[in-house]
Amino acid sequence: MVANAESRFNNLVGVPAVAVLAVAAFLALTAWAVTAALDGRPELWKVVGIAWTAFVAMAVAIPLGARADSGHAHGLVWAYGLAAGAMVTSAAVFLLPQAFGLHPRWGGFGVASGIVLGFGAHTVGHRLTHETNVDHTSLEISAHALAAGAIIGIVYGNMPTLGAFLGVAIVSHKGPAGYAAARRLAANDGDPRILLLPAAGVGLTAIPASIVALPPDPVPNALVFGFAAGVFLHVAMDFLPTCEIGGDVYDVAHTSDHAHELLDSLRLHAVASTGFGGLVVFVAWSLVA
After folding, report:
1. Cα-to-chain-centroid distance, residue 28
2. How far apart are CA 56 and CA 253, in angstroms?
3. pTM over 0.85
4. Which among 67, 224, 251, 274 has the fewest CB atoms less than 10 Å away?
C-alpha cells in the first residue's frame, strides 16, 4: 500500500517523491533561517546564500546533463578542474590555518580523520549500492552534499566573521557534479530529477547545523575545523578530472572514434583547469584582502 501511494504521488507531481520532499524541507528551513537572521542571527544569511548557490548550480546542471551528447568532454573537464582547484585552495587557505592556529597537533589529527573518514564513507557507500537497488550515483552525491552541508553549518555558525566566499568555493563542484550525474542517469534510463535531493542536501544539513555551538576549548574546535578541511580536501580530490578509462570524463568521451587520443588531450586541460581554479581563489582573496 505504501509503495502504491508513493507511485501515485510520483505520477501526480512528475518528480520522484524523495526529491519533492527534500525541496519542500529545504524551502521550510530557508524560511526559518531568514526569520532567525532577521531576529539577530545575521550569519545565517551566509548559510542560506551558500545553500541556495549549491541548489541553483546543481538544479541548472541537471537538464543540461540529461540532454548532453558526447561533445561536452572538454567542458566537463574544465568544470571539474575549476571546482576542484577552487575547493583545494579554499580549504588550504581558509580552514587549515584556522585548525592549526587553534591547536597544531589536534588540528592535524582532524585533517587526517576528515580525509580518511571521507574516503572510507565514500568507499563503503559505493560497496553498499552494489548490494541494493539504490542508484549509486545519486546516493554518493547525496551523501557528499549532506556531509558538506553539516560542516558548512557548524563552521559558519561558530565563525560569524567568516566570509561567504569560502562556502561558495566549496560548493562550486555542485554544477559539474550535477551535470555528470544527470548525464549518467539519463544514459542508464534513470530519472535525473532525483538529483534535486543532493541539490537541496547542503541546505538540509547546513541550516540546522548552524545552531550547534562549539565549546570554547581550542582542542575540539581544532578537531572540527581540521575535520572540515579534511572532508573538503577529500571531496575536492574526488572531483579532480582524472581522464582515465572508467571515469566520468571517459563516460562522456568514449563515444568518440578517437577516445584514447582525446583523453591524452584532455589530461592537459585537466591540469590547466585545476591550476586556474586555484588561481581564481588566490586572485579573489588578494582583492578582498
Report:
1. 21
2. 26
3. no
4. 67
3-state secondary structure the chain: CHHHHHHHHHHHHCCCHHHHHHHHHHHHHHHHHHHHHHCCCCHHHHHHHHHHHHHHHHHHHHHHHHCCCHHHHHHHHHHHHHHHHHHHHHHHHHHHHHHHHHCHHHHHHHHHHHHHHHHHHHHHHHHHHCCCCCCHHHHHHHHHHHHHHHHHHHHHHHCCCCCHHHHHHHHHHHHHHHHHHHHHHHHCCCCHHHHHHHHHHHHHHHHHHCCCCCCCCHHHHHHHHHHHHHHHHHHHHHCCCCCCCCCHHHHHHCCCCCHHHHHHHHHHHHHHHHHHHHHHHHHHHHHHC
Which sequence spans correspond to the domains of the chain? 13-288
Phi and psi at 267, nearest 5°, equal: -60, -40
Tens digit of pLDDT for each residue in 2-58?
444 444 444 444 678 888 999 999 999 999 999 999 998 888 999 999 999 999 999
Q: Which set of grid coordinates corresponds to residue 178? A: 550535477
Alpha-carbon span 83 to 240, nearest angstrom: 8
Pair 61, 176: CB distance under 8 Å: yes
CA distances from residue 39 to 31, 32, 274 in whole angstroms, order as listed: 13, 11, 41
Q: Are 30 and 54 in contact (CB under 8 A)?
A: no
**Residue 17 identity:** A
End-to-end CA distance of the chain: 59
Torsion-angle region of 285 (φ positive above 0: left; ψ -120 to 50: alpha; else: beta): alpha
The dihedral sign for the CA sequence 168, 174, 176, 179? negative
pLDDT digits (tens, 9 = 90+) for 187-232: 777 888 999 999 999 999 999 999 988 888 899 889 988 998 998 8
Distance CA 282, CA 275 (A): 11
